[in-house]
Amino acid sequence: MFGIVGGVLQSMITGRLGMRLLAGIGCALIIICTLTLAIGSDSLSVWISTAFVALFVFGQSFGPGPQGKTMAALSYPTRLRGTGTGFAESMSRVGSILGFYVFPLLLASVGLAGTMGWLTVIPAVGLIAVLLIKWNPLAAEVEDEAAEMITR
To answer: Residue 106's domain spans which residues?
Structure first.
């Protein structure tokens, strides 16, 4: 339910706020949730923990999930868009497969607090990338840029 709300909300406001901002907000929400669950895993009530997991799902569906797919689709000129989007989707699938494999191993070896702490690294890298890379595909003319690169 929280993922659906995050996804619908982001689709309504992406055009006004921009993909980078929403991806950054989503990454920040995920970082807050994973750190809170890492630090308070033993002391938080089940209801508060559930609320942070729900906020985590909302943040992923609001920010880096859909914004990453949109950026991939808009970052390529028409002649490369299928290949570029396919590559981005395949990397997403590789990440999912690795996550399904690594998560239980990590959980078994370092426990819930350690796992949530390690999982914080992934959205932190995403947030750093969003802050450092200022390119906005909504404002870019990738067709013109591609034609200019070909003629050089």
So the answer is: 2-151
What total of structural domains would you count in the chain? 1
Q: Which residues contact 72 (CB under 8 A, 6 or more apart)?
A: 84, 85, 87, 88, 89
Tokens of 62: 């609001």
113: domain CATH number?
1.20.1250.20
Contact 30, 123 (CB under 8 A): yes
Residue from 99, 116, 103 nearest 35 by CA: 116
DSSP assignment of 75-120 equals SS-HHHHHHHHHHHHHHHHHHHHHHHHHHHHHHHHHHHHHHHHHHT
Work out the percent of the chain whose per-residue pLDDT is above 90. Answer: 57
What are the pLDDT digits (tens) for 59-89?
999 998 888 888 878 888 888 888 888 998 8
Token duo for residue 133: 């890379």
